[in-house]
Amino acid sequence: MAGKTICLPKAGRTPPHWIVRIIPSLVLLWIQIALGSACTAVPSGPRVVAEWEAAIGTLVAYPFEIPGQLLAELAGEGRLFVIVQPDQSEAAQAAIKAAGVPPSKVTLIPTTTKTPWVRDYGAHTAVRPDGSAVLVDADYVETPIFERGAPPVHLGQELRYPDRSPEDDRTPQDVARALGLQRVPIEAFVTGGNFLVDGRGTAFCTVAFLDENRTRLSDDELRRRLRLRLGIERLVVLENTEPIGIQHIDCWLKILDAGRLLVKRAPADHPEFAPIERNVALLSKLKSALGRPYEILRIDCPVCGTHDDLATGQSLPTLPAYTNALILNRSVFIPLFGCAGDEEALATWRAAMPGHRVVGIPSADWKPYDALHCRTRAVFAVGTRK
User: Fold this and answer.
1) Stated pTM of the model
2) Residues 6 or more apart in contact with residue 161 via CB below 8 angstroms
3) Is 270 a domain residue?
4) Which among 295, 330, 303, 307 is positioned nearest to 319, based on CA atoms?
5) CB contact set of 310 (below 8 Å; sequence gap of 6+)
6) Same domain, yes or no: 28 and 121
7) Assigned domain for 29 exists
8) Helices 89-98 and 68-77 meet at what angle, rounded to 10?
9) Does residue 371 carry a pLDDT above 80?
10) In the beta sheet, which residues pair with residue 378?
11) 5 partner at 20 to 30 Å CA-CA among 100, 222, 322, 326?
């Protein structure tokens, strides 16, 4: 991450004490440089937190569109922070009790949300150089639909949305208040399912991320805002993979840590096969924040029944989104789709995450474009009231 550089004098070359007392700090730094110095980079901006960093709990939305099993598992890892409309609080408490979650493990956060996708409209946690944390609140309307090979969106163009839920956009304000964190607006669309970060200044997205913002911002201005508010110095933009859909990257790619990526492998005759493989070829040429090429692991996602396409309503072959999983402290929760590929997917995850508890969560409600990761978001330990 780019930042200011503070230069410290080498041993034996410290300026006289009278200079230190009377010369302003800025001039002193230049004197130290002239004497010869060892330089330590100090970040000048924020750093967005990566998913695998320490968390105190998980944010979910009521009405719950996740299984009771997952609610109980998440409560075992920390607190459940449940965003809920005030008139539904009693119903939420009853559902929590039915899932076997102790009320002492739950914090209800009254808000106006109407949909379950806390990953998309939830705020991003960023850490400032002084160690304090803020919630970076992006704009949210809903998730638009894009064709894979459509021309770039132009300024002012109207996008196609499956639905609109402007009430969800208020949620970060109420969550920030409940957690005792400052909310910082970014005034851009930073939809969480299409924005994966390594915690070291790199983010991954598909072209849909740029197109969503091109309705109001230039690409350069978007990158400037990401750098200013979230410390993103490198935005890796990859090809859309669905013939038509929301094009969220978390349905086919997962950042495991700063140096490793887990990528879906589609059947060779599936429409997503070729674009995913082109993206893998691009990723293989990049270096991670560790200074070496990414280690790219693959997870097989065989066809598993059919689903109604979000954009067209047509029946399409379902590819299970095994990368649409949640890393929470030392546990990993994987969506299971009730098909033959589930057990192999769990084995792949266990091999990829030694030292972690890997838990499969079956549900008939998981979609290839909307699964477990989309409906959960960690509440990180940094800066929050315990």
Assistant:
1) 0.87
2) 141, 142, 143, 144, 145
3) yes
4) 303
5) 145, 162, 245, 246, 367, 369
6) no
7) yes
8) 90
9) yes
10) 58
11) 222
Q: Does 364 map to a domain? A: no
pLDDT over 60 at 12, yes or no:
no
Residues 122 and 235 in one domain: yes
Burial of 18: CB neighbours in 10 Å, binned 0-12, 13-18, 19+: exposed
Secondary structure letter of residue 370 according to DSSP: B
Give the integer Cα–Cα distance in Å for 98 and 87: 19
**pLDDT of 184-201, one tens digit each?**
999 999 999 999 999 999
Phi, psi of 46 (to 5 degrees): -80, 170
Nearest-angstrom CA–CA distance, 371 and 250: 9
Residue 26 sits in the same domain as residue 110:
no
Contact 225, 21 (CB under 8 A): no
Domain extent for 175: 47-302
Would you tell me how many other CB atoms lie within 10 Å of the CB of residue 256?
A: 21
199 lies in the same domain as 283:
yes
Looking at 147-255, list the stretches that DSSP marks H as alpha helix, in order from N- to C-terminal side: 171-179, 207-214, 219-230
Bridge partner list, 384: none
Q: How far apart are CA 318 and CA 336, in angstroms?
A: 13
CA-based angle 121:197:278, to the nearest 5?
105
Q: Could you tell me which residues come within 8 angstroms of residue 224 by beta carbon, excluding any fewer than 6 positions away?
A: none
My answer on whether 97 and 158 are in the same domain is: yes
Determine if the peptide bond prior to 63 is cis (ω within 30°): yes
Best CA proximity match to 361, nearest among 341, 340, 342: 342
Q: Is residue 107, in this structure, part of any structural domain at all?
A: yes
Q: Examine the domain organization and report whether 85 and 159 are in the same domain.
A: yes
Neighbours of 333 (CB within 10 A): 24
Number of domains in the chain: 2
pLDDT tens by residue, 302-315: 999 888 877 777 88
255 phi, psi to nearest 5 deg: -85, 120
